Amino acid sequence: EGFPIVTTKKIPFRWVAEELFWFLSGDTNEASLRTRGVDIWKEWADLEHTSRFGRAAGDLGPVYGYLWRSFGGHYPERDGVDQIARLIHNIEHEPNSRRLIVTGWDPAQSELVDLPPCHTLFQFKVEEDAKLIHCQLYQRSADAFLGVPFNISSYALLTHLIAHVCDLRVGDFIYTLGDYHIYQNHLTQVEELLAREPLPLPQLEIKDEDGRLRGLPGLLSFRYEHLNLIGYKSHSKIAAPVAV
């Protein structure tokens, strides 16, 4: 039916993509994300928050990028498991595996960050004969108004990127929420959102004319310029404060 993105308010798709590329790079410094034009992590990056863990301003600690690319490591050393590299290798060489999983929840490190990962585990399922790949995400904590719309498009995009670099077609995205909540200071915005009618979904085009974006190197080489969200029409933006 189209690319999963909310249409009842405007979603900044470039921010979704740039944050995902930042995760995939393994970076955990908020300043690096801000150079991409995205400031959605700034509330947790000031010295008031980072100094509680003995880190400099901007150093978010073992958050998504670190956990995806160095799980179980001794932060900031990159001595853990590169789950993204392992995932791509297994999709390519063991597509029928039931272990195509990346976890963002490390109990040993969850108390070492101001904002522990909310989207905590995702698994892929490959239908080898049909060359289809499906994604299921489990999210422990879900901010209904601000977070969830971002997360839907982020993991849909991740599925498209992995499908492309592994020469597969995109299947289903299944989203499981643990604690799904609406903050008190978002109630008015939610009411406005629910009064709007959804619009048709856009299509996502990946621009890779030379077919060079393949495997893990291809996945890590993606830039926003490789993406074209065709026909995205939405209602206007609805501003809301972040709950810190």
What is the beta-strand fraction? 15-25%
Tell me, briefly, the overall form: globular
Q: Kindly provide the name of the CATH class.
A: Alpha Beta
Number of E strands: 6
Distance between the termini: 35 Å
**Share of residues in helices:** 25-40%
Total helical elements: 8
CATH topology: Thymidylate Synthase, Chain A
The CATH architecture assignment turns out to be: 2-Layer Sandwich
Major β-sheet, in short?
Answer: 4 strands, mixed
Domains counted in the coordinates: how many?
A: 1
Query: Which homologous superfamily in CATH is the superfamily?
Result: Thymidylate synthase/dCMP hydroxymethylase domain
- Cα gyration radius (Å): 18 Å
Describe this structure in words.
The chain has one domain: Thymidylate Synthase, Chain A, CATH 3.30.572. The strands form two sheets. The protein has a four-stranded mixed β-sheet with strand order 1-2-3-4. Strands 5-6 form a two-stranded antiparallel ribbon. A hairpin with a 4-residue loop joins strand 2 (119-127) and strand 3. The protein starts with 12 loop residues before the first helix and ends in a 14-residue tail after the last strand. It is α+β, with helices and mostly antiparallel strands. The protein contains eight helices and six strands; from the N terminus they run H-H-H-H-H-E-E-E-H-E-H-E-H-E.
